[in-house]
Amino acid sequence: xxxxxxxxxxxxxxxxxxxxxxxxxxxxxxxxxxxxxxxxxxxxxxxxxxxxxxxxxxxxxxxxxxxxxxxxxxxxxxxxxxxxxxxxxxxxxxxxxxxxxxxxxxxxxxxxxxxxxxxxxxxxxxxxxxxxxxxxxxxxxxxxxxxxxxxxxxxxxxxxxxxxxxxxxxxxxxxxxxxxxxxxxxxxxxxxxxxxxxxxxxxxxxxxxxxxxxxxxxxxxxxxxxxxxxxxxxxxxxxxxxxxxxxxxxxxxxxxxxxxxxxxxxxxxxxxxxxxxxxxxxxxxxxxxxxxxxxxxxxxxxxxxxxxxxxxxxxxxxxxxxxxxxxxxxxxxxxxxxxxxxxxxxxxxxxxxxxxxxxxxxxxxxxxxxxxx
Length: 373
Hints:
The chain is mainly alpha-helical. It is built from 14 helices and 10 strands.
């Protein structure tokens, strides 16, 4: 079976073709080498031998340039082509905020396991989450892999790096009484409230911002999540400006269908009747961006006399209410658009305590009465 990343392909003439990086200049331009054979395993074996030989030849190359220069080159020429614009913007900020300042004037030839491990420790000292540190390490690892392929670094310097263990952070959800307080204020708004949408659909703030009336099927009672709105940076320069992008949801699982409840349907139909634009959450007929939605949410919180929380907590509140009503974890995962059920379980494990109590009680009811007979 062909494995991802092997660069082995079957040609139209029936032969197998293997490709490897033969050499690369300091600007990153690649010259490939090729090997052919009638069988896949034959090509794979020859390809591994050629790659090993090429690496031995490259090991004599000395590159005394700055690692930060290489990192920026890799980011602009390779990373930019592999990810979405929105993802690239996030990665760019991470790189400029943490990678470039730390490695600064360090030469590529000075980079080793110790320097990478010290970088990880420095991130922990800044109290960054374990997930965020792992994302930074993954970026670092990818850039180093390219440098290794080019022969500018020894192989495997990112192996056996100790990363922080995952810490389970309990999600912040509103209590039922707090939710009612919030709804009381949100229902007073003349326009469609993003707060109500989040509480009764579990949609993300960007998905709510990009939701159009055409995405709601009132006949079949479903909401289709087709797009999301992001604010991204325009460039990699310092003090860069930002711009809004309306694109596809963050992952394939995020492009989902959410059943429309009876009460939410009636609420939306009422708001649609007075709407003057194509967007569900709008101001003067125009789309309301996530940043503005968040500003308005802070005002609603203040008027409802509720502690300051992030808008994303409404999504957690929706999930918690679902679990309290006995929702199974697979259905909840689909509703939220999670990539895996494991993510849902890890996120809402504490919220499921009452469900687990109910299971134990059900089993306990089977306790044999023969003990006392």
